[in-house]
Amino acid sequence: MQDDGTGSESGRRDAWLCHSADSVAIALHDLKASNWVEIGDDAIRLPEAIDKGHKLALRPHTPGEAIIRYGMPIGRATAPIAIGAHVHSHNLATALMGERDYGSFVATPPVLGQMPALGDWRGYRREDGRFATRNEIWVLPTVGCVAPLVETVAREAHARHAGLLDAVVGFGHPHGCSQLGDDLSGTRALLAALCDNPNAGGVVLVGLGCESNQLDELLAAIPARSHAKLRMMRAQDAGDERERLLALIAELAQEIGSLERDTAPASALTIGLKCGGSDALSGLTANPLLGRFSDQLAAAGGSLVLTEIPEIFGAEEALLARSTSRETFEQAGALVNRFKRYFLDQGQPVSENPSPGNIAGGITTLEEKSLGAVQKGGSAPLVDVIDYGGTASRPGLTLLEAPGNDAISSTALAAAGATMILFTTGRGTPLGFPVPTMKIASNSALAAAKPGWIDYDAGRVLAEGTDAVDEDFGRCLLATASGRPTAAETGGQRVIAIWKRGVTL
């Protein structure tokens, strides 16, 4: 992100330039027709009103000409565009196509340089050496038939064991029966990986008894290091299933309730990166803030997980260029193309994004959305690519197979081993996920309007600059990792969602 002093005669900054090569700037508040906007040494008089977060042209564009933001094309003009004109869906369209050949791997490892140290935090050390940000019991159903049972009993157990644990949470879902083949395998892999998350100090798996997703097969998919913390129950065989489930939770609570936090290094963090309900400021404030943090964490030896593969389309070259090996480069390119084929096989264009909320906030094309979204990963080296339900195991940035849907992708991040999720948003959402989900607003208006949703105001960057905000954000993040509840935790907004891709019987 680049600040070139874009502003007005009153001294208030009116627009923001992301990169010196850009042909558009972003309005930082509603601008009226005939307003003058200063761009460096020049001034532009607006021929029309520009809404906050929307783009204004810095030079004329002819039909077919590339429009540049973040120093990269975000699509092509579909009509003549005058200097100062509003640039949006009426005169800008995607240039995305289908699958691509990403060429040959060239080793260009990113140089992160000298950065401020993140410092230590306070976490729970597990027997396998990993650290957790929470000490909780998770109750997971193998099948949707027992999901309401799991959720109601977990709420009762949470009240019974208050003060002994950070939480007892039941995560219902509608899957696990009437599934076949790869679809059933995906459900099983996702649940097995959730059982292995360090934040789950204990896990109770609850089956019905007759479902496709049988407990024995699920147990076989769970890493051996997590078997000791598991308890299992088949509701059809349990007699009084509520009392049996409460007893299993109580047994685990006694085993792990005495655990205390210990000093942990930044390298012990595994952080999931996510954005949802984005606006045009997400790529100016919140996502670059996460990018600078990602560089710090990668430099400290920590792990980051990036997903939402459809929201990489149009920005994948910049990401693939950071691959640390030929294998990673080829796997990442294959994953992006596989996801594009997933769209095309369903008769959908690969550019079927942004969402209506994104568009209302000023984002026009998927290229624009993607170029803003991938900034969450900063310049961290791309070290690995993992399938849906896989686990991140290497320091640096891992690319995870999952769609853009907030609940599905965030659940996949937790399953991949993230013990905390950083979730940027320009329009807001109350939803939280299995691990602490820190909501970061791209604009101060959202942070002020929704304090029950938002944990951090990245809009402050526009007024205070990056250095002060980066330092404050680091403190806030480490405090959250060390036990300070997120807004979603306080509000009880925690869910899982499983990616359903196959036939239902």
UniProtKB/TrEMBL annotation:
Belongs to the UxaA family. Signal peptide: none annotated. Keywords: Coiled coil, Hydrolase, Lyase. This is Altronate hydrolase. One of its GO terms (biological process) is D-galacturonate catabolic process. The keyword Disulfide bond does not apply. InterPro entries: GD_AH_C (IPR048332), GD_AH_second (IPR007392), SAF (IPR013974), SAF_UxaA/GarD (IPR044144), UxaA_altronate/galactarate_dh (IPR052172). Pfam families: GD_AH_C, GD_AH_second. Residues 235-262 form a coiled coil. GO terms for molecular function: hydrolase activity; lyase activity. The gene is uxaA.
